[in-house]
Write a structure and sequence with these properties.
The protein has 95 residues and is an alpha+beta fold. It contains four helices and four strands; from the N terminus they run E-H-H-E-H-E-E-H.
Length: 95
Amino acid sequence: MIFFRLPPRLFVHGTPRQWRDPTRRWLAEEKDRSVALMRKAGVPVVETEYFADETPSLEMHFRICDDFETQGESLLDRLACSGKQKACSCTPSTT
C-alpha cells in the first residue's frame, strides 16, 4: 500500500456580512491576518466569498448554509446526515 502525504491547504469561506460589515471590522482583520500568516508559511489558501455582489445582511449569513459546498454536498445535507449515515442520501456510494 502506498501512502501520499498531501501538503496542507486552507479554505476560507465567508460572506460580505463577515468580511465587509463596517460595524464588525475585526472579523475581516482577523481573517486577513490568518490568511497572511498561512501564506507566509507556504500554505496555499483559497478564499471564497459568497454573495459578494450583495449588501451585507444577517439573512445572508444564514443563507450560506444552503450554498456552502463540501465535496459536492450542501452543508445542510451533511448536517442532516449526522448520526444516521446509513439512511442518508448524501452517503457516498460504494458501487
